[in-house]
Amino acid sequence: MLHAHLTPHRFAGILSTSFALLAATAGPSLAWQTAHGKPDNSGAVDVQTAPAINPFPNAPRLGGIAPGAGPVIAPDGTVYVVNGRGKLMSFKPDGAPGWSRDIRQGVLSSPVLGSDGSIYILGAATIRDHRTDPPTTTHIAELHKFTAGGGYVWHVPLPRAPGWHITTTAPANIVRAAGTDVLVVPTARKFANIYQAWLSAFSAETGALLADQKVTGFASEVTGGTGGIGAAGWWCYLTTLGILCPEFIPPLPGSAAAHTLPHDLRKPFPAVAVFNDGGAPLILMSDGLRDLVGFSFVGDALQERFRVRDDKHLLLSAPLAWPTGQAMISTTDQSGKSGVMFAGLNMSTIRTPGPVSAAAPTALGNSRFALVHRFGGVTVMRGAYAEKSVSLNGESIASAAASRNHIFVSTANALHTFDKASLELVTSFAWKAGGVSQPAIGPSGHVYAIADDRLFVFKPPLSFEVVDTNGGGIFQDGGTPTPQTAQSQTYKPPLTANSNRLFACEKLDGDDCGKGDYRSIAKAFCSKQGFAEADDIKVDSEKVKAETLDGQFCSKRKCKVFEQITCKM
């Protein structure tokens, strides 16, 4: 069933107001804590960046990253990436490796960071027991929790009936409800010829299952209306980007030899978007086929608020949530005509022409947003109309990332930097095997991007920059200049990854910490920020929530905390 339609002209005013709000209410946090930046999937942070021209040398190998997975970044600049083999890795802001942990399960999505700095990942494994005759096969899928320092807290199974196959390619997202974190996990499940999309909610504190809601369900003999994708085609579409599926809509343009993304690439199940204005959170979920559904999370229950279903269109991307509770999502119809759908609470449904895009839209503010083309390019729309479209060499399933002054677009062949105001292409950094992971932006302006199984870290505005006159490719034969960063930075006061005051004692019950404690803790703090030394250290006793660097809390009425630390190279 469809809502009544609005004309694009009437809708333009609504969009202008909505995206002005989106720019104004992006939130105080500059961290990239979810797969698409923030829970609303906006893919934007309000920090200044430099063009992605010259990365730090020795980009670390990651050990195989699943399509659609990417880095997440804590408020202190720590970067977390999990590879397809279940190895969770931390990195300093400049890409230097930190700790790592291994869950020994396959991971096909990005981590997500809680408000307290905890890290959550989804893992799955198939276990074959040859001690029985015949051998038995068990499929497991679990949600895992780690502390910011790498401590293992718990793991809980994802709900499903015995014998059902479950995909965990969509990342988890975070809902703030009654002052606590709730994890929401979208999954696709299959048993014989039955296919279903589900949404589950977990307590971030204990891992307890709070809700498990079926979103859609259908059988393989059912087709989507007048000859569109059926249930079996939907499953194929979710597991191969549609390239191997005879029912996929639309067909790929050109010859197979022209495609630059691997033909066996798995298409991630769409991530959910979260709208949270302080009331009951609204979770916007696409089933990856025909249905866009909005759920409120109230108490310990998911309550359906709206549903838009259309048998004539296929939902291509994850949704973007606006601060008015509506969703924006890319679509296509049976003829291959692509577009953008706007729908949700308090508003009728509208569709307007747009590019074929498998990536969530990126909010640019001022009624503008960027859509990355599946087959090479980017379109910036203002309201319901295309403002500018640029063709790019190389395909992509990755959303753009937006800073205060730039738009970063990853394709198979390069990372492209656009000026956000003029939409002019600033530079392209040549690489191979990109276009499958959304770039991410750190709180100090670092830009992180994955290609060819490497984590490229591009320098923030204060870094020394050298333009590669040969087109932005990787410097060879010692041509990489020595990295130069800001020589010092004062933190007043220094905060932990959870935005708490930094405890100044090595022992939790310490009353009169010596200067040795102050200096060693301050130096460790500066090391996490990418600096070598600590100076100008000031401490005092205050009635505040004080936390150590490894996540322990002072329980005393007054705690010794740092007032100031100046970090130096």
Overall pLDDT level: 81
Give the domain tally: 2
Shape: globular
Let me know the largest β-sheet: 5 strands, antiparallel
Helix and strand content put the structural class at mainly beta
Name of the top-level CATH class of the largest domain: Mainly Beta
State the helix count: 3
Strand content: 35-45%
Might you state the CATH topology name of the largest domain?
A: Methylamine Dehydrogenase, Chain H
| Rg, Cα atoms, Å | 24 Å
How far apart, in Å, are the first and last alpha carbons?
Answer: 61 Å
| CATH-level-4 superfamily name of the largest domain | YVTN repeat-like/Quinoprotein amine dehydrogenase
Low-confidence segments: 1-28, 222-227, 246-259, 463-486
Number of strands: 38
Could you state the oligomeric state of the chains shown? single chain
Specify the helix fraction band: under 10%
